[in-house]
Amino acid sequence: MKDRTVMRLSLAGLVLGSTTSQAGTLPAIPESLRPPATEMLALELAAKGVQIYECKARADEPTRFEWTFKAPEADLFDRPGRRIGKHYAGPTWESDDGSKVTAAVKARDNAPDSSAIPWLLLEAKSTTGSGVFSRTTSIQRAHTAGGNSPAETCGEAQAGQVSRIPYSATYYFYVSKP
């Protein structure tokens, strides 16, 4: 029994030691965007890239057109500023170590800056590999700048046009507590 307790504590220390070195401080996030209490912050990454939009006919009104979100495309950076991966359609986050996480939006809240894309809470749907993203359970997108749909006209003449809008954000990756 004592050996099991020591083993659990050693494992918990190993997990905490390996994740908190890259983790930042807990972000000030609206209550609706907080992950479950059974999760802990493991990694904080900055994203710089674009939000891609396409001018398309509306599904409910084919004679009206609007900018439709297509995908993100961004590089991911650790705190010292080293590029460690990328973020793209899925939405997917992929590390240079080969690990990936794909997630789905669970909750959203308007960004404090109305010119920025919303803040999100995402739930991991699948993970692959054995690197930094392999144990991810939740992801928060916060501290966004830019990325909103284009201000340009989107009409029949612009149908099919793609616009890449610069954005930045901080992504917080959570894992299950030991």
TrEMBL record:
Residues in the signal sequence: 1-23
One protein family per Pfam: DUF3455
Alphabetical UniProt keywords: Signal
InterPro entries: DUF3455
Entry protein name: DUF3455 domain-containing protein
Species for this entry: Aromatoleum buckelii
